[in-house]
Amino acid sequence: MRKVHVITQKEVVCEQKLEGCAAVVIDVFLATSTIAFLLKHNYEPIYAVKDSESALALATQQKGPYVLLGETQGESIEGFQYPDPCLIELSELQTSAIICSTNGTRAIEKAAKAKVLYISSIINGHLIAERLHEQTDDSSIVLICSGNDDRFSMEDFVGAGQIVEHLMSRGEYVLSDSSKLARDTYQKSLANSFQNLLDCETASLLRSFDFAESMDLVIRNHEKVEIIPVFTGNKIVNDYSKAVGSNG
Q1: Average pLDDT, rounded, for the chain
Q2: What is the value of pTM for the model shown?
Q3: pLDDT per residue over 140-155, tens digit each?
């Protein structure tokens, strides 16, 4: 029976232990939500890097059109679009995106050694759970909460609990203590229409930078975005076309 673990923040990830595991990175406010919305709006592939220097270096290697998105400690970066899903416009042509952030993209980098790596938020976590359940091997499932700059984040823990909830509705899994608690937290947050997330630390930070609408957008789109971002090679692409079942 497959085991499910929840890691509460990226700083405690042991990269070597992820080898052979199915991993999921979660950064509900905002990086992984933004990545899903970018894919929905025809930005592909997406490159997630740790900082602006890495993003600019990668930009010099692009042969086609691309956009730069990023923030550091919640602050905007000169020359970069803020990674706010409310600001994403539909791309008429397939355009790549390079994104850096304080938490989510750094978590993706730390999880890169996993056997398979998905990107999730509450907007698409139900599809990530479905894809994980479809896997026929016995690999452990590791749900990685990006956290908030070396601190625990409530919204990411809720996002992990969403995946646990959907996995358990589909079959039997061995849950770690953190997975059990994340599931309970998700259930309570769902019953409250996720209004408790608007009181979390990250929400206060985003409001201070006038990005409150982005949180409302994420909550309104709970399980409505039909995107399965998967990290392959050094980029993120949408794997939804290969999904099966009622959502396929």
Answers
A1: 94
A2: 0.95
A3: 999 999 999 899 999 9
Please give the average per-residue pLDDT across 124-153, as a whole number.
96
Burial class (CB in 10 A: 0-12, 13-18, 19+), 183: buried
Q: Which residues of 135-165 are buried (b: 16+ CB within 10 A; e: fewer)?
A: eeeebbbbbbbbbbbeeebbbbbbbbbbbbb
- For range 215-227, the mean pLDDT: 97
Whether residue 135 contacts residue 232, with contact meaning beta carbons closer than 8 Å, is answered with no
Contact 161, 128 (CB under 8 A): no
Reduce the DSSP state of residue 193 to 3 states and report it.
coil
Rounded to whole angstroms, how far apart are CA atoms 36 and 187?
23
- Whether the CA torsion 142, 38, 240, 237 is positive or negative: it is negative
pLDDT at residue number 167: 98
Neighbours of 85 (CB within 10 A): 25
How many Cβ atoms are within 10 Å of 247's Cβ, its own excluded?
Answer: 13
Residue that has been written with the tokens 């990290």 in this structure: 231
Architecture of domain 3-234: Alpha-Beta Complex (3.90)
The closest alpha carbon to 97, from 236, 193, 244, belongs to 236
With cut-offs at 50, 70 and 90, classify the pLDDT of residue 98: very high
What span, in angstroms and rounded, lies between the C-alpha atoms of 197 and 173? Answer: 27
Query: Structural domain boundaries of the chain?
Result: 3-234
Helix-then-strand count for the chain, H and E: 8, 11
**73 vs 2, residue with greater confidence:** 2
What's the CA gap between 75 and 60, in Å, rounded?
24
